[in-house]
Specification:
Layout lengths: L15 E8 L2 E9 L6 E7 L5 E5 L3 H4 L5 E6 L5 E6 L8 E5 L2 E9 L12 E6 L5 E6 L10 E6 L14 E6 L3 E6 L5 E5 L5 E6 L5 E5 L10 E9 L2 E10 L23 E7 L5 E5 L5 E4 L10 E7 L9 E8 L7 E3 L4 E6 L7 E6 L6 E6 L5 E4 L9 E7 L6 E2 L5 E2 L9 E8 L2 E3 L24
Length: about 450
């Protein structure tokens, strides 16, 4: 794909170049260059005799970035994953535990970085209902003795009205307390999503099950306007995305200019053009001037723009403690690209004291503070704001004060307690869209088939 005069059957590749290598019907290698990149991002994939993904390798990750450097998977005779080795902890594999008497039910997934310094205690647990559906996903216990974060799923038969949800389709999800509700049409396509404070997203499809309109809100609390994404399809693929907005009274406003922020994530109104790969995943988004507005880089199983990095503080951490919890570089694959980050803290559980907190920094020597502080007791999973270090180098630090402080039972803090356990912060992932000229990554929020999309609030 290139800029300039269109010539049928050819392009100069100035915007995007991709080469595919096949073994039979399966892609075993993809080489990608965006804009003025001189070194391609090379991804290699392996499969077993049942065409299940067994490996992913990106040997030049340190030079050009991406979503992974190495992944390896094994399966049992029933198709259950028995081992998974991620680059975050290689060569140690994550520990996968299945239920006794229910060999197809994964009950716990624990990080393979337990031998790291300090060791990682990152873990997820799963509970199932009588029909074998996941009913609860728990994070590991924090200093309160209870899970630091939890998702609870409710299915249709548990409520008087199904809202169109049937069988394995969940009707409601509790995200660490706040409840999200979902409604479906006669074809079991999601029709409405209701947020905890009553805001709604609405979805409209054509008869061919292609999403035509995705309508939402600028904020998850009080909506000042309603952004909506309109899709144009050609040959089963989205070719145009028009992001516009309506005022609070649902009057249509101009499509080509203005702010179309959605759920607090910045985006400009206008026309965008998604570029998809061989299986329909969006890998590039162009704006109306044919400039790259964002890129999509995927792991082996479809998570977009997310890098695994399992890092912890000491458990428990001492007083007067200062440490770099994580230090990570996502190279700028091309000189014209910038890289923006959001850090996902798997669990934040530190004492309620102003001197105990985590910060996000530009990792280069002359870099400064980018975001923070992040603190608080029993907070669970926390996303940071989006930051853009100049060189793609990010550092997360943590400090603690000279005193132990604990909740006093009245909503305040007691810093004279001596036996209260000091807590921890755990750092799990880095969503990393590549952006030219620091513009927003609309691709990350577009509902296009082929990508795993999860909102910052933990909902889907």
């Amino acid at each position: 794909m290139g800029a300039g005069t269109y010539t049928p059957g050819s392009a100069n590749g100035s915007i995007l170049k991709m080469n595919y290598t096949y073994s039979g019907d399966q892609v075993t290698r993809v080489d990608t260059c965006v804009l003025d990149a001189t070194t391609p991002r090379t991804e290699s994939y392996g499969y077993d005799q049942l065409v299940r993904s067994t490996s992913g390798l990106q040997p030049n990750f340190a030079a050009v970035g991406g979503s992974f450097s190495s992944r390896n998977y094994d399966y049992d005779g029933r198709g259950n994953r028995t081992t998974e080795t991620l680059d975050a902890c290689a060569p140690n594999a994550n520990v996968l535990t299945y239920a006794t008497g229910h060999p197809d039910q994964l009950t716990r997934r624990t990080s393979g970085c337990t031998n790291a310094t300090p060791p990682s205690s990152l873990s997820h647990g799963y509970v199932y209902d009588r029909d074998g559906r996941v009913s609860v996903k728990n994070w590991e216990n924090d200093s309160s003795g209870t899970p630091g974060y939890a998702l609870s799923f409710t299915y249709a038969e548990a409520q008087a009205a199904s809202g169109g949800a049937q069988d394995s389709v969940f009707k409601a999800v509790s995200v660490n307390g706040p409840l999200y509700n979902y409604f479906y049409d006669a074809f079991r396509r999601r029709r409405v999503k209701v947020y905890p404070l009553g805001n709604t997203d609405e979805y409209f499809h054509d008869l061919g099950h292609q999403l035509l309109v995705d309508q939402g809100n600028d904020s998850t609390s009080t909506a000042n306007f309603h952004p909506d994404d309109n899709y144009v399809w050609l040959g089963g693929r989205p070719v145009v995305l028009i992001r516009g907005r309506m005022d609070p009274l649902w009057s249509r406003q101009a499509d080509r200019a203005g702010d179309c922020t959605r759920n607090g994530e910045l985006a400009a109104c206008g026309f965008y053009f998604p570029v998809t790969d061989h299986i329909g995943k969006p890998i590039l988004m162009l704006d109306a001037q044919a400039r790259v507005a964002g890129t999509g880089e995927y792991d082996v199983f479809g998570y977009v723009n997310r890098v695994q990095l399992h890092k912890d503080t000491l458990h428990p951490y001492p007083t007067n403690y200062s440490a770099t919890v994580a230090d990570f570089t996502q190279p700028r694959a091309a000189p014209l690209l910038n890289v923006s980050f959001r850090v996902l803290f798997h669990q934040v559980d530190v004492q309620d004291a102003p001197a105990d907190f985590a910060m996000v920094w530009d990792g280069d020597p002359d870099g400064g503070q980018l975001d923070g502080p992040y603190r608080g007791y029993h907070r669970g999973q926390v996303w940071t704001n989006s930051v853009t270090p100049d060189g793609g180098h990010l550092r997360v630090s943590f400090v603690s004060g000279l005193q132990r402080c604990c909740p006093n039972g009245d909503g305040g803090v007691d810093c004279t307690c001596q036996n209260w356990p000091l807590h921890r912060t755990r750092h799990r992932g880095l969503p990393v869209p590549a952006l030219p000229n620091r513009r927003s990554a609309l691709l990350d929020s577009a509902r296009i088939p082929g990508a795993v999309l999860r909102r910052r609030d933990g909902s889907v």
